[in-house]
Amino acid sequence: MNAAATPATPAAKRPAGRGRNLELPEHLKAYKGVWVFIEHDRGHVHSVSWELLGEARKLADKLGSSVGVAILGGPDEKLEAFAAEAFGYGADKAYIVHDPVLLGYRNEPFTKGLTDLVNKYQPEILLLGATSMGRDLAGSVATTLLTGLTADCTELNIDPTSRALAATRPTFGGSLLCTIMTLAYRPQMATVRPRVMAMPRAEEGRSGEVVQETLGMVESSIVTKLLDFLPDATSNQINLPYADVIVSGGKGLKNPENFKLVFELARVLGGEVGATRPCVQAGWVEADRQVGQTGKTVRPKLYIAAGISGAIQHRVGMESSDVIVAINTDPNAPIFDFAHYGIVGNALQVLPALTAAFAEHLGKRRRLVA
Ligand SMILES: Cc1cc2nc3c(=O)[nH]c(=O)nc-3n(C[C@H](O)[C@H](O)[C@H](O)COP(=O)(O)OP(=O)(O)OC[C@H]3O[C@@H](n4cnc5c(N)ncnc54)[C@H](O)[C@@H]3O)c2cc1C
Fold first, then answer.
1. Which sign does the torsion angle of CA 176, 19, 192, 41 carry?
2. For 217-233, what is each residue's pLDDT tens digit?
3. Interface pTM (ipTM) of the complex?
4. Fewest CB atoms within 10 A around its CB: which of 4, 49, 278, 326?
5. What is the CATH number of domain 21-221?
């Protein structure tokens, strides 16, 4: 079917000012400020919320506007403490909703809570983490508000001409980066994966204003019921996005048995093990270890890539690492174009040599400290 000939929403049914009209409708011009949805679970704020706050502060400063945070949760949850932390990371105002139906994440009450806040306070930009919760919530909030949502962004800017949010994300399997602007819609929504943006520095003593709101939703009107929290039996506690050191292996390791060389070096360095997609697809390592466009985004202090070619889909997930060391037999491998240090050599020999050298060096240091 020709999409151009039969648009999903016929022009006559589109809300006024939407569709092909790229001018911001008059009634949306009142939208001001940059907001971040603060994601928390059982007493802990997800770090992606603070990473987004750092970005929100930069965007708001460019627009000359303020930063707000939306914090939704149960009656006894410490949302005010989260707000105090948010002020330190750059928020000016915290919009808090306590309600029994908001104890534990469920799509319906959180969608209502967040859309109510947006409709009342009209932020220009709304950012959420591209986590399981953030993706679920962003989609339903954007649909309810009939606004645009750019998912999985890697960069956020303000377009100098339109002053709209310019949200950049990989497309066409990661081979292109596209910048998306939702000129005629407010709020402009975007999700960003954990670790894509840098963690901002908290400013001690910085304060802000707290605004308390109510939800007005009864439990009986919600279809989903939260029965219990169960630990994820499939999760083996791999915390790739927040590891300081990652040793990753690729197809150059030849077989799953050789992956133990990667594990040994990671163990000696106190780091995590990552992998490329072909290694995960071949069943050499768990899917949770995949780094890249369809895996995790990481930002460690040290990323060692062994037998990895450096394809764009892998690169987008790890290129923000502080120091990248590549080990590859091919001196023309693309990974050497962006690695900080390169070792042209056989990973099956280089990895054990590095493991032995680090074990000796770190062992000596520990003896000295003792
Ligand atoms: C839509 C889409 C999404 C994708 N998402 C991801 C993703 O999230 N993550 C990801 O990683 N990939 C992803 N890919 C796959 C990606 O395109 C590449 O195919 C993949 O990253 C290549 O993995 P590799 O480097 O392990 O293997 P290869 O590209 O085969 O590279 C192996 C490298 O090892 C080197 N080598 C060989 N022997 C040795 C040795 N003994 N010692 C040292 N070096 C050696 C070779 O010179 C070569 O450079 C995606 C692809 C698509 C189409």
1. negative
2. 999 999 999 888 777 66
3. 0.99
4. 4
5. 3.40.50.620
